[in-house]
Amino acid sequence: MRRPTRGLTPAAALLLAGFATPLAATAEMTAPERAEFGAEVRAYLLENPEILSEMFALLEAGQQAATAAADRDRIAASTEALFEDGFSFVGGNPDGDVTVVEFTDYQCGYCRRAHPEVAELIAGDGNIRRIVKEFPILGPGSVLAARAAIATLITAGPAKYAAVNDGLMTLDGPVTDAGLDATLKAAGLDPASVRAAMDDTEVTRRIEANLALAGALEISGTPTFVFADRMLRGYRPLVGMRELIAEIRAVN
Questions:
Q1: For the residues of 65-132, what is the DSSP string, one character each?
Q2: Residues of the domain holding 24
Q3: CA-CA distance, 206 to 202, in Å (whole number)?
Q4: Suppose 222 and one of 95, 105, 180, 244 were both cysteines; which one would form an S-S bond, judging by CB atoms 3.0 to 4.6 Å apart?
Q5: pLDDT at residue 8 in the model
Q6: Is residue 209 part of a domain?
Q7: Are residues 136 and 40 both part of a single domain?
Q8: Across all residues in the chain, what is the average pLDDT?
Q9: 106 and 51, same structural domain?
Q10: pTM, whole model, 2 decimals?
Q11: What is the pLDDT of residues 98-140, one digit of tens each?
């Protein structure tokens, strides 16, 4: 919204109308003119402090747009690794019209908070393809859990993986050896068999591939989601995820 600029010098009016410093104009001012200009703008801002909120909102919107554009470029450059790596868990509707990729850590509080809401999003929509990327960045317990989940997927298949994934996400507290074994048993698995597969080089390869992909996408925290060509860094409630899905479908 434009602010009234009556009574200001032309240079000050240009600044306040466009929210940008007229550098060319001030460079041509004499020292007294620049001082008068600065005093006039300061007085105007003190009388109308709400204009600063508008300026910050415009700046933030511009930064968000630039970040979103950069994220789209990163996603486009990593399409195959994101959506067709051939080893990540794929759930939901394999033929869904929107793919959601999760970079997750089993010890991340916000990942655990998002977990039931993501499940509700997938189940309630029916047309979303879900991919999970193990991204263990929060310590030894995270690595332990990720290795167990990947080993389960390799040796026991996606249904057992989904059960282990849910069990680890709903643990009370950090991942421990005892908690892991209890989760594996609850999923109908033999903990000793899963543990025997956890140190396989293929498990290591998959984790390293996910870490490299996260680096290429400049992902440093969890949860991070890729909704089609959009990046969602951090937790967003179910209603926000549904709105994002609707926006994607509206433009595709």
A1: HHHHHHHHHHHHHTHHHHH--SSSEEEE-TT-SEEEEEEE-TT-HHHHHHHHHHHHHHHHHS-EEEEE
A2: 10-73
A3: 6
A4: 105
A5: 47
A6: yes
A7: no
A8: 88
A9: no
A10: 0.76
A11: 999 999 999 999 999 999 999 999 999 999 999 999 999 999 9
